[in-house]
Amino acid sequence: DMGTLPRESTSPYVMRFLHNDGTGELLVPGDVPGEDDDGLRFNAEEWTIEVMVRLDETPTEDVILVQRLVEPYSQVHFELGIRASDRVPYTRFQAISGEDYYVYGEVPVPLNEWMHLGGRYGQDSTGGLVNRQLAVYQNFVRTVRDVTNVLPATGNQDGDLLIARNLVGDIEEVRIWKEALSDEEVISRIGQQ
């Protein structure tokens, strides 16, 4: 999905479907020679990540659905995943200081059912310049953590964008946006192909 104007998905590829048996992952280069030589293609001060996922079995290790690391210390710029211990989705980032910030969903991701998961970092609904929220979406449910005055580590990508590590199941419709979409925008996209 390349997005719709005026918003554009940061990804120049269309990832429609990937089945993983838990032993592999998809790596997407952060820098593309002649197109993005400095590895800033996925760099964003605010972001939204969306995926459709179906678990075939309970994971034995945390599933990283989408993750971007930044130089020079391999800090997490953004990550959307599923915690193995209870199959609850989460989103996270690391602050410039290195501190981890997480927010967890409300219920486990079911087995053998498609579910829309999303993560967002950016302005809260009041639109305040310093009022920031980290949110995770599970179908039509949003869980939020206030992260006012906390900025995620940003910069050149360290290694490749990681998709579907430790996933035993299917993932499709991976979308990465360089802005914090509103709740209404994220929810309205649920189930769209």
Description:
By secondary structure, this protein is mainly β. Helix content is 3%, strand content 41%. The protein is built from one helix and twelve strands. Strands 1-12-3-8-9-10 form a six-stranded antiparallel β-sheet. The protein has a six-stranded antiparallel β-sheet with strand order 2-11-4-5-6-7, with no helix packed on it. Strand 6 (89-94) and strand 7 form a beta hairpin. The model is unreliable at 1-7 (pLDDT under 50).
What brief labels describe this structure?
single chain; 193 residues; mainly beta; 6-stranded antiparallel β-sheet; 1 helix; 12 strands; globular; disordered N terminus
Question: Helices and strands in order, then pairings?
Answer:
Blueprint: E1 18-21, E2 26-28, E3 47-55, E4 63-70, E5 75-82, E6 89-94, E7 100-104, E8 115-123, E9 132-138, E10 141-146, E11 161-165, E12 168-177, H1 183-188
